Amino acid sequence: MELLDFLHVNSYEGFLPLAITLQAAKEYGMRFRDVEIVALNEGIMPLRYKRNVQSLCVQEQLTLLQSNVLIVGCGGLGGFVAELLTRIGVGCIRLFDGDVFEEHNLNRQIGATVQTLGKNKAQVLAERLMQINPSLHVSAYPEFFSLERHGDLLDTVDITVDALDDPEFKTVLARYTYERHMPFVHAAIAGMTLECSTNRCLEELYPSGGKGAETLLGNLSFTVACAAALQSAEVVKLLLHRPHLDQTLFMDLKEYETVFF
Amino acid sequence: MRIVVKLFAHYREGRFKVQEGDFPLGTKAADIIASLELEKTSPLGVLMVNGKHVSPDYSLREADEIALFPKIGGG
Question: Where do the DSSP E strands lie in A116-221?
Fold first, then answer.
């Protein structure tokens, strides 16, 4: 039987279950991911994306699978962004973080568990993501991102996600990508306040060096999850060429106040 | 001259949300930031006058509306 016939015969209500993809990969000597690419090209959606279908078409799901996103920082923002992009179906994710999980990360960082304390954040996240999407290509770099050492990587990805906690490097990375017309999605939080922007420089947000209000107010779980959700939405909109933020979105969750500037 | 000052996020705590005040001619944005001691709370982020980003040495004019946001950098 040809692969396409196999996929049609074995799909379940028009969806392709994991077990059938795995069986096809073995029988036809293909990678799991390539079987899904063939299926999506044939209009068959992997079953795990069943709840995406009214919002994403098969072609868009294929676009996400063939997209490549760089996440710089794997703490609060980076952990949730990596999780959300993996779940929606982004197919290639590169993760950078030189830090290990510490006890004070447990309040908000999705990769932080009692078991992962002391382990590298990028590597822990990569393992977690592979449990979610067998088609995912994930690369973990257990080091801090540096333009000198890793700048070439920016040319190879579709979008760079700013999940850093250092305003100075956020600003440098935003400027670097902006000048090269590389898509860049920024977010930051402090207490119950967050901000998010797409393809914008950050000098106006960070007029001076040094940390911001987070040193006073800390970083709360729901604020970081909310900011990461906005960032993930922006990444998906960029990848699918849908309209995205053209201003900075500033949100205060205390009063549910939203300002664009 | 009359100036409207708007504060955001935790800058409001112990201060106000919106306040109209009378300031001497030649007042700069930096003077208002200093008079409110905002940076004793946390560093300043976005500074806008009438919806446009300006620098702290911007000289305010009658009926200007200045908006002050704290710097947010955590992740």
Answer: 137-141, 159-162, 184-190, 193-198
